[in-house]
Amino acid sequence: QLQLVESGGGLVQPGGSLRLSCAAPGFSLDYYAIGWFRQAPGKEREGVACVSTSDGSPAYYTDSVKGRFTISRDNPKNTVYLHMNSLEPEDTAVYYCAAPGLLFSRCVLDSNDYDYWGQGTQVTVSS
User: Which of 34, 52, 101, 106 has the lowest tally of Cβ within 10 angstroms?
Assistant: First the structure.
């Protein structure tokens, strides 16, 4: 069964940057759409960004992170990254990566479409 592992979270000052990683030891992520989601205390889980399989399909972002976050694949490293720049206190949350159960799926920012989830990594933006 596909297992996803996130890393790269931490404490950063407003305006700073972080890079989150999503890996799947023993599995190739090439044929999975991958989504990044986040959940802040007291709030519902929110779709942040997603990328479809390695066919050049466009990535999608929620409005609040457009221009600041970038999702990318490193196929040789079997890793999907979420590059986060110009971080704001409102970005504070636990960040999860997720994959759908079907290969070659198009990505959507709806958590109901995802079957495999990582354990999450905490991102805290504070001065």
Answer: 101
Q: Percent of the chain at pLDDT above 70?
A: 98
In this predicted model, what pLDDT tens digit does every residue of 72-113 receive, in sequence order? 998 889 999 999 999 999 999 999 999 998 888 888 999 999
C-alpha–C-alpha distance, residues 57 and 55, integer Å: 6
3-state secondary structure of 106: coil
What is the structure's pLDDT at 58?
80
Give the span between the Cα atoms of 14 and 76, in whole angstroms: 32
SS3 for 23?
strand
- How large is the greatest C-alpha to C-alpha distance in the chain, in angstroms? 41
Contacts of residue 73, defined as CB under 8 A and 6 or more positions apart, other chains included, come to 29, 30, 34, 51, 54, 79, 80, 81
